[in-house]
Amino acid sequence: IFSFCYRNLAIGIGIQNFPEGLAVSLPLHAAGFSTLRSLWYGQLSGMVEPVFGVLGALTVALATPVLPYALAFAAGAMIYVVVDDIIPEANTKFFKLAHFGHLISFSRLKMSTRLINKVQ
Q1: Fewest C-beta in 10 Å: which of 44, 65, 81, 95?
Q2: 2 close to 15: Cβ distance less than 8 angstroms
Q3: Residues in Cβ contact with 7 at an 8 Å cutoff, skipping those fewer than 6 apart
Q4: pLDDT, tens digit, 9 for 90 and up, residues 48-84
């Protein structure tokens, strides 16, 4: 069963890499790079992923005691960006829609937390 999960993970990463490579290649091509050269840079941007994936896995294996704190710090940074940048920008034009979106998002967060706690 684990090989099935790994295969699905590899397929998911491959699917995610396709638009990522296009996001690198298309602007280069539009800027005047040749098709082959922009394709090469798009492929090159994805080649670092396996190397840093292994380094990340090793880091997680070695830093297991501090992993919860690191994840909490990353979550805090994401929340800071949302509160400091995204919410004020959304409130400028679409005030009611932004508040409705916040209400739905936090409601879903609370429901999923309760659901996870019931399963455990």
Answers
A1: 65
A2: no
A3: none
A4: 888 888 898 888 888 889 988 988 999 999 888 887 8
Say how far apart CA 83 and CA 101 lie, in whole Å.
Answer: 14
In the chain, domain spans: 1-62, 65-120
Alpha helices in the chain (DSSP H): 2-30, 35-62, 67-81, 87-93, 95-119
**CA-based nearest residue to 101, from 91, 113, 115, 114:** 91
Among 43, 41, 56, which residue's Cα sits nearest to residue 14?
43
